[in-house]
Design brief:
By secondary structure, the protein is α/β, with parallel strands linked by helices. The chain has 16 helices and 19 strands. Strands 5-10-9-8-6-7 form a 6-stranded mixed sheet, with helices on both faces.
Length: 563
């Protein structure tokens, strides 16, 4: 159903006069019909029969039924549906196109809860019974609560509201014909490096996809009807940055949840994590749910501070093997709980690249995926309770949408020691030093996988086109007269080894442009956009300094001989 705003009254001009004449003509015609219609059967002046009275009563009853039906449609329209400019979560302000909602079916609620119970029971069975499994979950997954927040707005409720907002976005887009999607979507995009990629195992055995297999069927059930989209965009062997400058490129601008997994490359500190968090808070659906694959105290403390300041409503920290009761791992193989059997076996064939002591094996990835799924399913249950008990949940969830508007707190990290304060942590407002804002970053990358913004798109000249397989070694002569898209020696050797095992499903690759002095000049144009779909058009006569504070090139740290 569509509701339209009334147009302004026409001005007193020829067009307005024409409109008035048309209205007048219509009125005249109606009056003519009125004068010729049959008399009121209840009028003393008219002569009626029993048939006439029955017919008239039937028409009255039909009219009453029609009016009731029309009123039911009006009541079913959600008056709180937003419109206007989308806020940070893709929802709009009040007064939008109306939304027709479907009443909840109690059987749908009951069925969803039954399925949640079955999944929890499977979790308990896999990990040694309810008590042992819940203890494992408590050790392996940490949530963060804001003591200043309302009692009914804890971490799990905040995640539940994310599901509900995905439904609101879908309903809004459907009512305004903006979306071709057949269902609401909740997007979880995982960044990181080799641990999240799943090195030593098949890509599909990495913990994000284990979680997806468990959680997706639950979210898809009515009354939620939400499709879970999981992206594993991790790239082996890179730190928080430059990856963190390109989060929309790698993770997608539609990400509801993002993750960080760089603990092995960045010691015990939290400086890199904080820069990454602040970049994540600039993404369109800000603040995203933040998933930390790490349990080191400085990083936990950093997230807690951002929670206390009100900038992260529902982050989680996820562990792995340390969550397991070591006594269970010492049991004979057949006595171990099913989820701990074959604990020391890799998912990929023996000898596959990445089977190193610091990478989780197959069953550890499964444990991590199950723990993450259990937390997300808790939020599903809360969402069901909200939908069932509060008929005005749409209005309340919309009011609670925690859009940040680009404003951030002062960094916890001592920015004076970073040497690149503004590009890593932002800069204070000139009016209020307690309010900080991040620099807008336009990123182009040759690393894979990326959702948009491939480096090729800004190359104007100076590149040698090469159609050969990237994994084949290139002759030095190819670099004379042009730069070449290539991979490093270690990257190539690793990928070649992986290919011997069928590729293992991996999609990450660190490609880069390589050149030598005789390659000549590489000419690029500088991209600037407000978002992936909203580029800024330059008039062509302005200097780059009009748009950019700085330009950062990330080079490959590799030396090939003396050339």
């Amino acid at each position: 159903m569509e509701m339209h705003r009334r147009s302004k009254a026409p001005s007193n001009n020829s067009s307005g006069s024409s409109a008035k004449r048309n209205v007048g003509g219509s009125s005249s015609s109606l009056r003519s019909k009125h004068n010729s219609r049959p008399g009121n059967p209840y009028s003393a002046a008219s002569q009626t029969t029993t048939t006439d009275i029955i017919l008239f009563r039937s028409m009255q009853i039909l009219l009453v039924i029609t009016v009731c039906w029309f009123l039911s449609l009006i009541i079913s329209v959600d008056p709180t549906t937003p419109s206007g400019t989308p806020n940070g979560d893709g929802l709009r302000g009040s007064g939008s196109a109306s939304i027709i909602t479907t009443p909840l079916d109690p059987q749908d609620i009951a069925n969803a809860r039954d399925q949640i119970t079955k999944v929890r029971e499977e979790f308990y069975t896999r990990y040694g019974g309810e008590s042992e499994a819940l203890d494992m979950l408590k050790r392996g997954l940490r949530t963060f609560e804001n003591e200043k927040a309302a009692k009914d707005m804890g971490s799990v409720r905040s995640t539940a509201d994310r599901y509900l907002r995905s439904i609101l976005r879908f309903e809004e887009n459907q009512s305004s014909s903006l979306s071709a999607l057949p269902h609401a979507e909740f997007v979880m995009a995982f960044g990181g490096y080799s641990v999240t990629v799943g090195r030593g195992n098949h890509f599909e055995q990495s913990y994000p996809f284990i979680m997806e297999k468990i959680l997706a069927p639950i979210l898809a059930l009515p009354p939620l009807g939400v499709k879970l989209v999981v992206r594993n965009s991790a790239i082996g062997g890179i730190p928080s940055f430059p990856y963190g400058w390109c989060l929309p490129n790698f993770l997608g601008e539609d990400a509801d949840a993002v993750s960080w997994d760089y603990g092995m490359n960045e010691g015990n500190g939290a400086a890199g994590l904080e820069s990454y968090v602040r970049q994540a808070l600039m993404m369109p659906k800000s603040p995203p749910m933040f998933i930390l694959l790490d349990m080191k105290r400085p990083r936990l403390d950093l997230l807690q501070k951002y929670v206390n300041m009100g900038f992260l409503p529902d982050p989680v920290a996820l562990g792995g093997r340390d969550a397991v009761n070591k006594k269970l791992l010492q049991l004979p193989e057949t006595d171990k709980p099913p989820g701990l059997q074959k604990w020391d076996e890799w998912g990929a064939p023996k000898g596959s690249p990445g089977q190193s002591p610091w990478h989780p094996k197959k069953m550890e990835h499964e444990l991590m995926g199950w723990m993450m799924a259990m937390h997300m399913i808790d939020a599903v249950e809360v969402a069901l309770n909200v939908m069932e008990k509060d008929p005005n949940w749409r209005e309340k969830v919309l009011q609670q949408n925690p859009s940040l508007g680009g404003e951030l707190p002062a960094p916890v990290t001592d920015v004076a020691t970073t040497g690149a304060a503004s590009i890593l942590h932002g800069a204070p407002s000139t009016d209020d030093s307690s309010k900080w804002y991040m620099n807008h970053v336009s990123c182009r990358t040759s690393f894979l996988p990326n959702m948009f913004g491939n480096f090729d798109s800004i190359i104007e000249s100076g590149v040698t086109k090469d159609e050969e397989d990237m994994l084949q070694s290139r002759d030095d002569s190819l670099f004379n007269g042009g730069w070449v898209m290539d991979v490093g020696k270690v990257e190539r050797e690793t990928k070649v080894k992986v290919q011997k095992y069928g590729g293992l499903g991996y999609i990450d690759m660190k490609t880069a442009l390589y050149g030598i002095p005789s390659s000549g000049t590489l000419k690029l144009w500088l991209p600037y956009e407000l978002s992936a779909t909203n580029p800024v058009q330059s008039s062509g006569d302005l200097l780059a300094g009009t748009y950019f504070n700085s330009v950062v090139f990330c080079e490959v740290n590799e030396k090939r001989g003396n050339k």
